């Protein structure tokens, strides 16, 4: 019984107190985070999205949904569609074909950082079952929050001298965090932290996970952070990881999980601990020197009162730069037996060097020495209709200079902007090697979670230093996990493989919002001549606007 789920959404700015301090957030239908979409695999989602912002366009990306046959609904401004103007409505209509834990978010400017996000949960189709058992589930959408407005942040990032956004003030769980107090001040040895005095009905009050003893719970955890890499632990409870980015994985047990921006996991916990106690769920920052307190909430065993403080302090986040811990977690993620396997060989290999650079003194990120600057006409229309002046037709480089030292800052940090695309013919197997490098400062290389639109890819492996031809011998072709986001570790590389079976124009970028703003992404155009039925409204701007707005359907 496949059905179409019709939703009507208004996007607007509103006052909200995500971390007990009032601010302006982007909300949907008066809610922050936006409404959770719940559907069954095979359903069609139709979101009639009205832009109620007074002076800005908006688009929404359905993160992890491949948009097979509907590339114009991917919600990427300048890539798959024109931004929706104030007062206008766009119908996002697409099929959710695979069960899993997903989310949606703004993909124009830094609107995701401004709070434009929500959860998208796809259950198995009627008559199907998940390959694991659980009694009930909870949904946890993780994000990070700054007090400075996103406009202020964008101007700082685009200024000379560069002004970095710094670390977040607060981590949020389902849009809720505490800035000026702690739920666990009792356990703190500093007196500067106040114990929170919340009634529970505040916008910043934590959502408590109420559980029954001796049951199995599925925690659906997704991260839409603007910057922070996170680690999550449940005091006194082990977790069994069963899903990653909407794909089943070989179950494995851990004490804590790392989750990077753009990723999602399902973990199972068994409520087999003493039922007269409560337990902390704690989330802390990884990969960057933290200046943000842990996010906390409670696992509350019925019938114990939720106001009973746990017996033990919150689980401690592993040291921020303990990358061995992170790598060990990443290497445990393997596809569940029976999952689709990658082709044995690749047709094309694209190596992408990630560097921090300067353009006329402005700080940028570049891929093979080009910092992405999106054109005003969306690629989907300009490629489909061969509007050659819409963007740079020269293909971007597929590799970088062989003498480049990834362990040192760039010898010549100067670079240029560009908007060229990688043209990918249909039905080819593409390998992408993401190569990390030293940033502008000596001995600094950062984590970058890379997200691909329109596809899942197989993660064939991670390695240290510069990728060499020898490294491909170590690729996992047996049970590599399918994902839509994969991290590159400092001074390392990550190898991905995917098959070009989905006509459209797909962004592939660092999911750290300020890094994308600074140019850290590329664009793949895949069999665009096979795309038919682009709604007029998706192209009503730039050169396609001039050309096509008079006809009814392209
Ligand atoms: O893009 C970034 O800029 C800063 C720093 O490199 C310069 O201030 C930082 O930590 C980033 O991730």
From TrEMBL:
Keywords: Copper, Disulfide bond, Glycoprotein, Metal-binding, Oxidoreductase, Repeat, Secreted, Signal
Subcellular localization: Secreted
Cofactor dependency: Cu cation
GO MF: copper ion binding; L-ascorbate oxidase activity
Pathway as given in its UniProt record: Cofactor degradation; L-ascorbate degradation
EC number(s) recorded for this UniProt protein: 1.10.3.3
Disulfide bond recorded as keyword: yes
A Pfam family that the UniProt record links to this protein: Cu-oxidase
Domain Plastocyanin-like as annotated: residue spans: 11-123, 139-302, 408-528
Gene Ontology annotations for the cellular component aspect, listed alphabetically: extracellular region; plasmodesma
Catalysis: reaction(s): 4 L-ascorbate + O2 = 4 monodehydro-L-ascorbate radical + 2 H2O
First-tier enzyme category under EC: oxidoreductase
Function statement: Ascorbate oxidase involved in a redox system involving ascorbic acid (AsA). The oxidation of AsA represses responses to high salinity and oxidative stress conditions such as vegetative growth and seed production reductions. Negative regulator of defense responses toward incompatible Turnip mosaic virus (TuMV strain UK1) by preventing jasmonic acid (JA)- dependent accumulation of ascorbic acid (AsA, AS) and dehydroascobic acid (DHA). May be involved in a redox system involving ascorbic acid.
Similarity field: Belongs to the multicopper oxidase family.
UniProt cross-references to PANTHER family, sorted A to Z: FI03373P-RELATED, MULTI-COPPER OXIDASE
Subunit structure comment from the entry: Dimer.
NCBIfam families, alphabetized: ascorbase
Protein name per Swiss-Prot or TrEMBL: L-ascorbate oxidase
Organism: Acer yangbiense
């Amino acid at each position: 019984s496949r059905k179409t789920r019709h939703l009507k959404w208004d996007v607007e700015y509103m006052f909200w107190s995500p971390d007990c301090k009032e601010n302006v957030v982007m909300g949907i239908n008066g809610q922050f985070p936006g409404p959770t979409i719940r559907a069954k695999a095979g359903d069609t989602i139709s979101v009639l999205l009205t832009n109620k912002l007074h002076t800005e366009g908006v688009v929404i990306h359905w993160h992890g949904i491949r948009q097979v046959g509907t590339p114009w609904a991917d919600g990427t401004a300048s890539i798959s569609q024109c931004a929706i103007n104030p007062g206008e409505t766009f119908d996002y209509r697409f099929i959710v074909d695979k069960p899993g834990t997903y989310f949606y978010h703004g993909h124009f400017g830094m609107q995701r950082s401004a709070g434009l996000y929500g959860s998208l949960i796809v259950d198995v189709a009627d008559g199907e079952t998940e390959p694991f058992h659980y009694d009930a589930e909870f949904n946890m959408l993780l994000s990070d929050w700054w007090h400075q407005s996103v406009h202020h942040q964008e101007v700082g990032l685009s200024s000379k001298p560069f002004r970095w956004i710094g670390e977040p003030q607060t981590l949020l769980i389902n849009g809720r965090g505490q800035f000026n107090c702690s739920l666990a001040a009792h356990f703190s040895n500093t007196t500067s932290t106040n114990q929170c005095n919340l009634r529970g009905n505040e916008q910043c009050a934590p959502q408590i996970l109420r559980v029954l003893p001796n049951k199995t719970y599925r925690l659906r955890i997704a991260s839409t952070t603007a910057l922070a890499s996170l680690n999550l632990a449940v005091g006194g409870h082990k977790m069994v990881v069963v899903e990653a980015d909407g794909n089943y994985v070989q179950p494995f047990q851990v004490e804590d999980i790392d989750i990077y921006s753009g990723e999602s996991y399902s973990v199972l916990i068994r409520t087999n601990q003493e039922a007269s106690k409560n337990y902390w769920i704690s989330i802390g920052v990884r990969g960057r020197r933290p200046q943000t307190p842990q996010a906390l909430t409670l696992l509350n065993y019925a019938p114990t009162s939720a106001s009973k403080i746990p017996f033990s302090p919150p689980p401690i986040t592993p040291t921020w730069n303990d990358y061995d811990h992170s790598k060990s977690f990443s290497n445990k993620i393997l596809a569940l037996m029976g999952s689709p396997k990658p082709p044995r060989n690749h047709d094309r290999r694209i190596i992408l060097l990630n560097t921090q650079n300067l353009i006329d003194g402005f700080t940028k990120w570049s891929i093979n020495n080009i910092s992405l600057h999106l054109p005003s006409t969306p690629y989907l229309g300009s490629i489909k209709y061969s509007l050659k002046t819409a963007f740079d037709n020269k293909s971007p480089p597929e590799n970088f200079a062989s003498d480049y030292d990834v362990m040192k800052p760039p010898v010549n940090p100067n670079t240029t902007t560009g908007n060229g695309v990688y043209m990918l013919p249909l039905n080819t197997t593409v390998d992408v090697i993401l190569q990390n490098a030293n940033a502008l400062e000596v001995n600094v290389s950062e984590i970058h979670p890379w997200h691909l639109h329109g596809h899942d890819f197989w993660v064939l492996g991670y390695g240290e230093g510069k990728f060499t031809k020898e490294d491909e011998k170590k690729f996992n072709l047996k049970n590599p996990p399918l994902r839509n986001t994969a991290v590159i570790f400092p001074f390392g590389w990550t190898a991905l493989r995917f098959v070009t079976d989905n006509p459209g124009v797909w962004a592939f970028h660092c999911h750290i919002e300020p890094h994308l703003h600074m140019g850290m992404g590329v664009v793949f155009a895949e069999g665009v001549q096979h795309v038919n039925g682009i709604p007029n409204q998706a192209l009503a701007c730039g050169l396609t606007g001039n050309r096509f707005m008079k006809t009814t359907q392209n």
